[in-house]
Amino acid sequence: MCVTGGAGFIGGHLVDALVSMGAMVTVIDDLSNSSAINIASTIDQAPDQVRLIQASILDPEAMASAVEGAQTVFHLAALGSVPMSIDDPARYWVVNATGTMRVLQACAAAGVERVVYSASSSAYGNNPDLPKLESMAPEPESPYAAAKYGGESLLRTWAACYGLDSISLRYFNIFGTRQAADSAYAAVIPAFVKKYINGQSPTIFGDGEQTRDFTHVSNAVLANLLGCVAKEPLRGQVVNIGAGVRTSVNELASMIATNLGVEGIEPSYEPERVGEVRHSVSSVELAKSVIGYEPTTTIEVGLAETVKWYAGQFGQGP
Ligand SMILES: NC(=O)c1ccc[n+]([C@@H]2O[C@H](COP(=O)([O-])OP(=O)(O)OC[C@H]3O[C@@H](n4cnc5c(N)ncnc54)[C@H](O)[C@@H]3O)[C@@H](O)[C@H]2O)c1
């Protein structure tokens, strides 16, 4: 097995799951948005099962070495910030679209059987129809979304032209332990926990009534494993991976405050960010019929675990 971006948030959880099942895993990650520390404990526990190649997916030699002998390649390496992609669209296209093509080229050359790609629900853009169905026309509204959607097209193309089987998993707001909390573009849950713990107001962009399908990382890991073991050819199909539940950012802030036992701190509101979608919730019916996916961890259970973990990280138990 090979996991691109395996030192990252979702990739790290996937590597842990694969290792616990006895798989041999090669991780290729340039550590541009992660640290070897994320994966160090996994390597310590299973040094014979995990190999880390610190290199970019854009490096053909490193990619060839990473996928050599792999049956399945889980492709998660990407740059992940919508606002940063608006500042630097070319870089996002190179890493997220061209980088995906490089991964596919290396996989086709090495005889890999299947690529499981981490795609993004940002492909739906601001289409107001809910829930999001894979049959809807994509409307990417940021360079990040366009490049991630470009990756899906490349997977389909490599299945059609080069016989490389694959599936695209369109994730909806994945959250869980070990998600980076300290960048300016941090994911909303760790950012909110950090603020509350420090006795500060969490910042909400817009009125907070925008909704998201917050999906615990264990569901994303499950989807990757199901994508790997599916018996029938998948031919680059696209499926939604979410929890199928709509939660507003205001509700989320309140759930986090409750989990932390914080009272009397109201969020502060700033102008809405360019390129961000208003509402988002998945239908997971197609994922159920194609790979047997059903979310197993609810937002309530996942949030309780996640908030507790961050509270520990930030030096305070709930
Ligand atoms: N987190 C979410 O909610 C979410 C939602 C939709 C899609 N996704 C997708 O899931 C995947 C994983 O996201 P994540 O949240 O774990 O992000 P992450 O930033 O924690 O992980 C991405 C990893 O890719 C690595 N990377 C970046 N550029 C690279 C390059 N050129 N070569 C090698 N490695 C490189 C980073 O160092 C990082 O370790 C990404 O493809 C992302 O687009 C995530």
Question: Key terms for this structure?
Answer:
42% helix, two-stranded parallel sheet, alpha/beta, 7-stranded parallel β-sheet, binds nicotinamide-adenine-dinucleotide, 11 helices, 318 residues, Rossmann fold
Describe the structure.
By secondary structure, the protein is α/β, with parallel strands linked by helices. It has a domain at 2-177 and 216-243 and 282-296: NAD(P)-binding Rossmann-like Domain (Rossmann fold, 3-Layer(aba) Sandwich). Helix content is 42%, strand content 15%. The protein has helices at 9-20, 36-45, 60-67, 82-87, 89-110, 143-162, 188-197, 217-229, 249-260, 285-291, 299-313; strands spanning 2-4, 25-28, 50-53, 72-75, 114-120, 165-171, 174-175, 203-205, 211-212, 215-216, 237-241, 247-248, 268-270. The strands form four sheets. The protein has a seven-stranded parallel beta sheet, with helices on both faces. A two-stranded parallel sheet has the order 7-10. Helix 3 packs across helix 5 (89-110) and helix 7 (188-197) packs across helix 9. The longest helix has 22 residues, at 89-110. The chain starts with a strand and ends in a 5-residue tail after the last helix. The protein binds nicotinamide-adenine-dinucleotide. The site of nicotinamide-adenine-dinucleotide has 29 residues, from helix 1, helix 5 and strand 5.
